[in-house]
Design a protein that fits this description.
The protein is of the alpha+beta class and 751 residues long. A hairpin with a 6-residue loop joins strand 16 (382-387) and strand 17. The radius of gyration is 28 Å and the shape is globular. The termini are far apart.
């Protein structure tokens, strides 16, 4: 039995080879693990294992870089490299590497994996980091977030539509031939630049992966991202942020903005990537995508907001130090990044034990045969992992002292019938206050009856499952400590980005087959937080998300190429309508998630940037704090569910314009009446029913000077016609006040 257990542990060790490598490097001096992130350590260990039959040469022995194995070119990885002031770019080229960009002391570089040991031992290199990329996570929507008053549909010209602002979207699965992205007067694409990181048109390109297409016609000629037959996520999110609507109610929020798009790579795209190029697509490559969009906006001398609806699980592993810092240096005045919170709150993945309790526990469950868990503690602790119950319980006890010297701890847990096992390995990285536990079974974890974890300590201890496919379940007293918190995905957990959760408003819809799809969530259907929407705090205790927006059954554009390639796919059953355009069949589709809420907020910020092009991320947060609605009034705001609340775009605009400081003006939109221009000097105020009370309407300029006053009577009529005086070209206000509920507020218009 012992020998069989040993074999299991050895097989498991091979599948997690990077753990062994990290330990050996920690004491050998071959590589400083404090400089190299775990993902890069793992890649180098795989490379060394593959070349085990080749005697490695000594890198930089004569001042020149050589591959570890003569005659075999090294795979390349995109990574962040932090250096000191003495580092020269020539060092990259001497290592067979390519510097793609620099932001201060952080470079993004394409590095041969074989060059990592030599680079990491240089004194002028402080850290090298990368992580694998993540996963993907408009009709009534515009009314819910109160965008409609910003561009009254019958007004011309519309005051705020995103015009002059660049809306950037980095996502996957784009179809630029969808008419919602076309200028219907010229037929040209509204997308001014597009970088497809999976494009095969790489001859002559200066980009490290894929190719870009600059100019509306070049984008339209390219037609779609390479993965548009596999997924339509980006087509949907881009339409929410800025689609023109094309003869439908499904117009995006900033529908007159300029567009710049990056198609990056996620897990869905793996079939399209050659195995030798797989490590070129990392978080560092995503960072280049953000910079590509901001650089385009800079060339256009335009403010810019980027929507990013992807993410991966945050961990206590310091793997994102440079990524977070890089993004913090990209954002600033007129440069905003908006990201998804994630859809991870369905199951608990966090088990926290405060110092006031000696122990806390929960049951473990999972739909896979393996899982990874991280532990964080501010002092000594032990965990007890058990399977079974009563006399058949099998138990393993592990303490943090087992890893004091950064040694690898291994054990195996058996079920009572000896048919199922759970092999365990734990490792603490040097000088970091957390350890990682890796589990591997010969069966699905849900078949390990009563698999439980108990934390014991006089200190504060927390355990975090690395994926929602491996989670905690609360049962009886003593085994009920898990919470569905601390599940904000990265990069949404970074301080410099605006992170968005999702509210539920539309509970169902009729699809194109006239079938009703009911997605009501019990007790959560009245504009409150959706049950799936990830919540904070972050693992270091910061507030997240900052804001929420509608994300349930949001209707937007879908890829015609995806529809043609996957006519029976399950998500096609959520198509609202199919229509033909230029010989192709297109769709409007209802989709759900924080992926859909994020471009709503990005589009809203685009309208704010139109009003104040140098708006900073800090000012965005302040606007959210001052103007967001509070869906659950009994809660204290901000909080880690809603942040500051649900976005109110028009209220934010009014505050940016200084309307709230004008005496006698109510800085809100009247909900019961609409405002439209009949001609240049005539305005119509309309209501759904008769005016039962008199109205007072004041005409103001944006400096707060009252230019005219209209006194309108009550009566059996539902509209009033106002004649404007001759005005110079500028923005003006019509402030309406009335005893009648819903009739008080202000309209902004351009004369």
């Amino acid at each position: 039995m012992t020998s069989f257990t040993t074999i299991i542990q050895r097989v498991f060790a091979l599948s997690l080879l990077w753990l062994w490598t990290a330990i050996s490097w920690g004491g050998s001096g071959d590589l400083s693990s404090s400089k190299l992130s775990s993902y890069l350590t793992y890649l180098l260990s795989q490379r060394r294992a593959a070349l085990a039959a080749c005697p490695p040469s000594v890198a930089m022995a004569d001042g020149q870089y050589r591959p570890l194995c003569s005659g075999q070119s090294s795979p390349q990885v995109m990574a962040f490299v932090q250096t000191d002031g003495s580092f020269e770019d020539e060092v990259f080229s001497s290592h067979g590497a390519r510097c793609c960009c620099r932001v201060g002391d952080i470079a993004v570089a394409l590095l041969p994996i074989d060059a990592l040991p030599s680079l990491a031992t240089r004194e002028d290199v402080r850290r090298i980091e990368a992580r694998a990329t993540g996963k993907v996570l408009m009709d009534t929507t515009r009314m819910i977030v109160n965008a409609t008053p910003a561009y009254q549909s019958s007004m011309s010209p519309h005051p705020f539509t995103g015009k002059g602002v660049v809306v950037g979207v980095m996502d996957v699965g784009f179809d630029f031939t969808h008419p919602t992205f076309l200028d219907m007067e010229t037929g040209r694409s509204r997308v001014g630049a597009f970088w497809d990181q999976l494009s095969l048109d790489t001859v002559g390109t200066s980009l490290p992966v894929g190719a870009d297409y600059v100019g509306e016609q070049k984008v339209l000629d390219y037609a779609h991202s390479r993965d548009a037959m596999l997924i339509s996520h980006g087509t949907h999110t881009l339409g929410i942020a800025a689609g023109g609507g094309y003869d439908s109610p499904y117009r995006g929020v900033a529908y007159e903005s300029e567009l710049c798009v990056v198609a990056n790579a996620v897990n869905t795209d793996l079939p399209l990537i050659d195995s030798t190029d797989i490590y070129r697509y990392t978080t560092a490559t995503d960072a280049l995508g953000f910079k590509y969009i901001f650089d385009y906006a800079e060339r256009r001398s335009a403010p810019c907001v980027i929507s990013f609806s992807e993410g991966y699980h945050e961990q206590w592993d310091d793997e994102d130090l440079l990524y977070a810092e890089f993004l913090s240096r990209l954002v600033g005045p007129g440069r905003i990044i908006v990201t998804s919170a994630g859809n991870e709150s369905v199951v608990p993945t966090y088990l926290g034990k405060p110092s006031s309790l000696y122990q806390v526990g929960a049951q473990l469950m999972g739909g896979e045969k393996q899982g990874v868990m991280h532990f964080f503690a501010d002092g000594p602790f032990e965990f007890l992992l058990s399977v079974g119950e009563g006399a058949t319980t099998s138990t393993v006890v592990f303490s943090s002292s087992s890893l004091e010297n950064d040694t690898l701890w291994c054990d195996t847990l058996w079920t009572h019938d000896r048919h199922r096992y759970l092999a365990l390995q734990a490792l603490r990285r040097p000088s970091l206050p957390f350890c990682q536990l890796s589990l591997q079974s010969n069966d699905y974890l849900y078949n390990l009856s009563h698999l439980r974890l108990l934390l014991r300590s006089t200190s504060t201890v927390s355990a975090l499952c690395s994926s929602s496919s491996f989670f905690f379940v609360n049962s009886e007293e003593g085994w009920d400590g898990a919470t569905a918190t601390h599940n904000i995905l990265a990069p949404g957990c970074f301080p410099s980005v605006i992170t968005v959760g999702s509210t539920i408003h539309r509970t169902g819809f009729y699809n194109y087959l006239n079938e009703y799809k009911d997605y009501a969530q019990e007790g959560r259907n009245d504009g409150v937080l959706a049950t799936y929407s990830s919540v904070g705090p972050t693992l270091d205790g910061r507030l997240k998300p900052e804001v929420v927006a509608p994300g349930n059954n949001i209707i937007s554009s879908y890829s015609s190429f995806y529809l043609a390639a996957n006519p029976q796919a399950s998500d096609i059953q959520s198509d609202i309508a199919h229509f033909d355009y230029n010989g192709r069949t297109y769709a409007w589709n209802a989709n759900t998630g924080t992926s859909m809420a994020t471009p709503v907020v990005a589009g809203g910020i685009a309208l704010w940037l139109q009003a104040k092009p140098d708006l900073t991320p800090e000012e965005v947060v302040e606007l959210l704090q001052l103007t967001s609605r509070h869906p659950e009034q009994e809660l204290t705001y901000p909080n880690n569910e809603y942040g500051y609340g649900e976005m109110d775009i028009y209220a934010g605009l009014l505050r940016l314009l200084g309307v709230d400081a004008i005496e006698g003006v109510t800085a809100q939109a009247p909900h019961a009446i609409t405002f439209s221009r009949m001609d240049n000097n005539t305005v119509r105020l309309s209501a759904a029913s008769s005016f039962t009370a008199p109205l007072c309407v004041g005409l103001y300029d944006m400096q707060g000077r009252q230019l005219h006053t209209y006194h309108l009577s009550a009566g059996d009529h539902s509209e009033h016609i106002l004649t404007l005086p001759t005005l110079s070209s500028a923005l003006y206000l019509l402030s309406v006040s009335s005893p009648q509920s819903g009739y008080n507020g202000v309209f902004v218009f351009r004369y």
